[in-house]
Amino acid sequence: LVGDAAHAIVPFHGQGMNLAFESCRILDRLLRDQGYADDLAATFRAFEASRKPNADAIADEALENYVEMRAGVVDPRYLLQRELALELERRHPDRMADRYGMVMFTTMPYAAAKERSERQQEVLDALTVGISRLDQVDFTRAAELVETLGPLPVWE
Q1: DSSP letter string, 11-53
Q2: DSSP 3-state helix, strand, coil percentages of the chain (rounded to 5)?
Q3: Whole-model pTM?
Q4: Which terminus of the chain has fewer CB atoms gathered within 10 Å of its CB, N or C?
């Protein structure tokens, strides 16, 4: 139910194990909660509702990472977008964050990190249409698009 074998995903920096630790913490909290302490069926329904979106998100992220590392690192478009993402993170640290950084170095829920990385990818896609070099990016437009993302969420 909560062990790392119950959280198996494509290898992604130990995140299957981390997901299992998070699940233990959430289940413990639910079991201690007065509203759930005497109703195991309700406890497990709440547990599943809480964990499934994040488990699905990190499983998807792990697969995307695998594909990216297998093929993306030799794709010129990927390399341009990676370079642009790093530049946008440097220019807008409160609005742009690397997917891996959100997953590995914050307590942001996996589903939130996945949604944010998808929105950031839309910005990168829009900014790299028809160009092949970083010096061709319209950084005025980039700032406008990044602004629409809103600030990065703050997590404990």
Answers
A1: -STTHHHHHHHHHHHHHHHHHHSTTTTT-HHHHHHHHHHHHHH
A2: 70, 0, 30
A3: 0.79
A4: C
Confirm if 13 and 6 have CB atoms less than 8 A apart.
Answer: no
Q: Amino acid letter at 33? A: D
Q: Are 61 and 110 in contact (CB under 8 A)?
A: yes
Distances in Å between the Cα of 135 and the Cα atoms of 92, 142, 149 are 18, 12, 23
pLDDT in tens, the chain (156 residues): 676 566 777 777 778 888 888 888 899 999 888 777 788 888 989 999 998 999 999 889 888 888 877 777 788 999 999 999 999 999 999 999 998 888 888 888 999 999 999 999 999 999 999 999 999 999 999 999 999 999 998 875
Q: How far is 63 from 124, CA to CA, in rounded Å?
A: 20
Q: Give the span between the Cα atoms of 2 and 45, in whole angstroms.
A: 14
Helices first, then strands: H and E counts in the chain: 6, 0
For residue 154, give the DSSP letter: P
**How far separated are the first and last CA of the chain, in Å rounded?**
25
